[in-house]
Amino acid sequence: MAKQIKHQQSQCCYHNWVAQQRLDLDELLQALNNYPTDLDYLQLITKKTIDHFEQYRTARAQLAQHDAPSFLVPSWGSTFENSFLWIGGCRPSLIIRLVYALCGSQLNAHLAEFLEGVRHGNLGEISSSQLKSIDDLHAKTVKEEDKLSSRVASLQACTTT
Q1: 2-34 and 39-64 are packed helices; what angle lies between their axes, rounded to 10 degrees?
Q2: Stretch (H or E) spanning 129
Q3: Which residue from 7, 50, 104, 126 could staple onto 130, CB 3.0 to 4.6 Å apart?
Q4: Which residues, at least 6 apart from 72, have a Cβ–Cβ distance to it below 8 Å?
Q5: pTM over the 0.90 mark
Q6: Per-residue confidence of the chain (161 residues) as pLDDT tens digits?
């Protein structure tokens, strides 16, 4: 039930953003048509549009704290949109690679503290068994991605012949 509520919140966030984009676009076009030489006004309207994007980004970041994968691949995306994300490289293994990168960067950033034995409770301190679990999940994920990519390639080959 909680997951469904988060999904609804994400969809609501997205739909509000799309509606705001439409309003901002209309306002930008009106400003450009009615006041093409008033640079101060055009800059004000542009800043307002950028502020709306920042608000959307902040709202998405807050929602991502509870459902991080949906931040990378929104659940409201159509199959068509999700296929473009896939083609662009946004795949489940990307999230795992992000975990690897964060572990490494946090380890490097706090190396002296780690060597002194000071603990911070961040990703740089994951145990070897946790890292093994992540590695296993990564291998399984990449294998499934490869299967899916092969299926897509074979379907594409069938449609082009």
Answers
A1: 170
A2: helix 128-160
A3: 126
A4: 90, 94, 95
A5: no
A6: 666 777 688 788 888 988 999 999 999 999 999 998 999 999 999 999 999 988 988 888 888 777 766 666 666 677 777 777 777 777 878 878 877 777 776 555 555 665 565 555 555 567 778 878 888 888 998 998 888 888 877 877 777 66
